[in-house]
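Fold this sequence, please.
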Amino acid sequence: MAKKHRKSNRKKAFVIILIIVAIIVAGMTAPFFNIKTITVSGVSKLTEEEVISQSEIKVGGNIFRTNIHRAENRLEKIPYIKEAKIYRKFPNIVKIKIVESELAAYIKSEQGFVGVDINGKVLEISDNNDAGTMTLTGLDIGANHQTGENIKDFSGVAKDCMEKLAECEILSLVADINIENTSNIIITTREGLEAHLGNTDELDYKIKLLQNVISQGYTSGIFDATNTSQPTFRKNK
């Protein structure tokens, strides 16, 4: 009886496996699961067509056989794409969701103007800097940079300044960060306010002081926070 029971169980297991295999084969070959629609969201720098083309996902391809992970990796090689997530919506829709990297600053280099995001990732290289984008002055990054790479020497004062300005929600108001002399960091706003911050000591507090000055409506002049116990403001003559 025990042997018959074991044979019966093996037979049932074999049948179940056959059914599962049949379902998988059907799913990977049936036209019902061929992709009919590919949607893209989250793009402004790129077009939907560029994203779909780079993903190599094709309308008409089987939704099960489409390698989602590989397509995400291909997309994340595009400099302006920070993150790509792809989802299947059965039976025949693929959704691509993109988070784009944002151009934060231009750095003058031997190649021209190197556009980077807040983490120092190279997004573009141009002969001219966009007037609406902040510049980083005094950062020597050399030459031979490629889009998509991270600038090795970017971490440090430049990144700290940008991150703290972003935390205080005033990064977009800044025209230039001058770190040529790290003992006298100078931040200039788009409206002409010049902030002298001294060195990196208490940098977080100094930038909060700058935020407070801006919030009070001071748009031009010289704000000196070198000595945090006695910050001063002087109007332009």
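The chain has a mean pLDDT of 88. The longest helix spans residues 2-29.
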